[in-house]
Amino acid sequence: MTAHRIDGKAFAAKLRSTLTTQVADFKSAHDCVPGLAVVLVGEDPASQVYVGSKIKQTQEVGMRSIEHRLADDTDQATLETLIDALNADDSIDGILVQLPLPAGLDSSAILDRIDPAKDVDGFHPVNVGALWTGADALVPCTPLGCSLMVADTLGDDLSGLHAVVVGRSNIVGKPISALLQKMNATVTMAHSRTADIAALCRDADIVVAAVGRPGFVKADWIKPGATVIDVGINRLDTGKLVGDVDAGAFEVAGAMTPVPGGVGPMTIACLLTNTLRAAVLRRA
Ligand code: GUN
């Protein structure tokens, strides 16, 4: 059996198309458009590419993109002053500080300074806490995209299903675990210190891999018919992009996201979704 390929590119395009209509409706109702401020510090090449795509897609759905590119040697006080100004600016609905920040800057202090109502990354402790207590929250974009793809594949009630999340990062592993649990899955969080990850995965109806190691999850760890969400984007020395799951898993799984073209495109679509949501909630 070959797994159904979960097409993140097509799914994201559909989300952006819906958003374009919703942004137009928002504009009619409020006589303004949602604004997303993107802050990039330094010259990290991957971050430059991501930020470029975020800005382009924000504009494509009809929202306003406000760009702040700061030098590599920007100090903490300057960055905090910028965050304070964006928090105070009523025309800004979302604030995104691209990570990683250059060494020497305190990322946690910066993320904690963002107004939780404008925290479209969902990284502020208020939003993290709200997610875990089941309250309405701005949810981190990559996990939100993963949960939408799981819901599209299996429905939004995962009662009786076992999900194994491999990786425990704040950006992906922890929040996707909370989201899957909210959807009634029984969730196991596995990580580098877990004994026999292979056996855990073999019991999983859903595997989410977010470890940043090419091919870490092997094809023979996958239960036949399982749903596999591969969050990894790893560039090999050959230049090829591969995920955290061995591509052989496509022969075993029931449905699986490809890399590239799976989770990646959903992340920015969910950032735009969060920005509109923040704009609506701020005016409610
Ligand atoms: N760098 C890599 N992924 C992300 C993300 O989701 N948000 C931000 N702000 N930076 C990132």
From TrEMBL:
Pfam families: THF_DHG_CYH, THF_DHG_CYH_C. One of its GO terms (molecular function) is methenyltetrahydrofolate cyclohydrolase activity. Residues 6-121 form the Tetrahydrofolate dehydrogenase/cyclohydrolase catalytic domain. PROSITE patterns: THF_DHG_CYH_2 (PS00767). One of its GO terms (cellular component) is cytosol. Pathway: One-carbon metabolism; tetrahydrofolate interconversion. PANTHER family: C-1-TETRAHYDROFOLATE SYNTHASE, CYTOPLASMIC (PTHR48099:SF5), C-1-TETRAHYDROFOLATE SYNTHASE, CYTOPLASMIC-RELATED (PTHR48099). Catalyzes the oxidation of 5,10-methylenetetrahydrofolate to 5,10-methenyltetrahydrofolate and then the hydrolysis of 5,10-methenyltetrahydrofolate to 10-formyltetrahydrofolate. This is Bifunctional protein FolD. It comes from Litorivicinus lipolyticus. The lineage of its organism: Bacteria, Pseudomonadati, Pseudomonadota, Gammaproteobacteria, Oceanospirillales. The gene is folD.
